[in-house]
Each structure stands twice: as structure tokens, then as C-alpha cells.
């Protein structure tokens, strides 16, 4: 396991000035906004830190973890080190005595989608979760760390290998599988097997019946992806991967939509639902 090194404020300022460290703020969004933060700091509260290994850039920079007084940051830093992040630093004493540059204002949540975190009250109490098109596993790692039994699918072998290695390092209950989600025939997902199915930033319309059928009665689908307006931002642009206005609730039917949103959120044009299977 990588060793966590605690650094002084003078060391931290020098590293940041040289561009050698990425500041990671593990306080709450309110603290980040109202108490100020290191310029350029990523916002990822400590209770969501399990998703960090999947989203941190592999650009050679050390990760400088900080909170307000240095307690939460050490817990998060140790998790990152255990997960295999190669250079992890903890800011001694936290940000409270910081005399370096400080900015104020809200920050975008890094790691999990805000749609998932804002609707966490609709997640089942434990149980099985299917993460479809999981990528490097930002949601799979987070839910497995929260006690869910997670099955993660993606066609990218490198991403699945990373997720499997990270999950093993963190001793998480997480099954990873390489699956071609867009083959000639849709993959055969287990029927009525999952308490929740999650899909983020992915759209393959022929897969939708299988996703619905994979839910247990009472199970819930958490789905969010881009709409056609995102093409104005440059990526993605293929209509096959973009939802039409108002399309998502129709695609998930006959699931009952519990919550939904559509528009620009977190700087992206998306549509999202949480929908429940009610028939036996």
C-alpha cells in the first residue's frame, strides 16, 4: 500500500505553485463554498471518497487531500493509498490555518453523479445493484463501499481490470464482467435479479427492455444520460447516443417514474429518472 505523507502548508504551497499536486477537498459542499477552498481544488466529500480512484487523473501529480482540520482528510487519504493511488499527501492541520490563495463559491461534485447522490434516499437498503456501462467504476466503488452487492458491466477490458483490482484492494463485494452491450443480440441480463440498476452517461436503446426486466418487483432504475442539446457542447454528437426531449420517461415505461429532471445540470445537458418496477 502507498504510504500517506503529511505535508506542511509551506510544502503544499510550493507543490501547488509548481503544478505538482492536485488539491482534493473532502469537506462538504457548504464548507467548500462558504469557508473557501484552494483554487482549482476538486470537491469530493469524504463520504464519497471511494469513487475517487476511478476519476482522479493519471497525470503524474500527487493528490493533496485536505479538510478543515486534518481529520477527515487523513481518512480519505488512507483510502486512496489503499486503493492504489501512487502519491497521496495529507495537508497538516487542514485548511483552517491556510494562508495561501483561497477562493469562494460553489464547486462541481467530482466522482459520482449528482443525480445518484441527490436521490440516494430512493436506493434500497442494501441488496444487489447492477451497474451498466460502469467505466472505471465511480458508482460501483461507491455503492460497494456502502454495503451493496454490486455487479458491474462494461465492454472496456482495461476499465474492468482497473475496477476489479481496485475493488480487491479495498476488499469490496464487487463482481466485474466484460460484456459487449451493443452486440447483434442484447446481452442476456439476469431476470428479476436486482434491487437497483444504474446507468449513467450511456444510451443503447435496444438494451432498455433487458434493464427493465433485470429489476426485481419494487426495484428501481437510476438512469441519466445526455440529450440532443449536448451536441452543441461538442461531445457526444452521434444521435444514437443522445436522448430526444422528453424521450427517457417513454423509454423506461412501463416503469413508474418517481423522480425526473431534464435540462442543463452540472454544465451538461441531460435527462434523468428514477423509475420503479411495480408489476410482479
Pattern of helices and strands: EHEHEHEHEHEHEHEEHEHEE
Do you know the CATH architecture of the largest domain?
3-Layer(aba) Sandwich
Largest sheet: spatial strand order? 8-7-6-9-10-12-11
| Total DSSP E strands | 12
Strand content: 25-35%
The main sheet comes to: 7 strands, mixed
CATH C-level name of the largest domain? Alpha Beta
CATH T-level fold name of the largest domain: Rossmann fold
Overall pLDDT score: 95
What is the global morphology?
globular
CATH-level-4 superfamily name of the largest domain = Vaccinia Virus protein VP39
Overview of the molecule:
The chain is of the alpha/beta class and 280 residues long. It folds into two domains: 4-91, Oxidized Rhodanese, domain 1, CATH 3.40.250.10; 114-276, Rossmann fold (3-Layer(aba) Sandwich), CATH 3.40.50. The protein is 25% helix and 26% strand. The strands form two sheets. It has a seven-stranded mixed sheet. The protein has a five-stranded parallel sheet with strand order 1-5-4-2-3. α2 links the parallel β2 (21-25) and β3. The longest helix has 13 residues, at 157-169. The radius of gyration is 20 Å and the shape is globular. The relative contact order is 0.12. The mean pLDDT is 95.
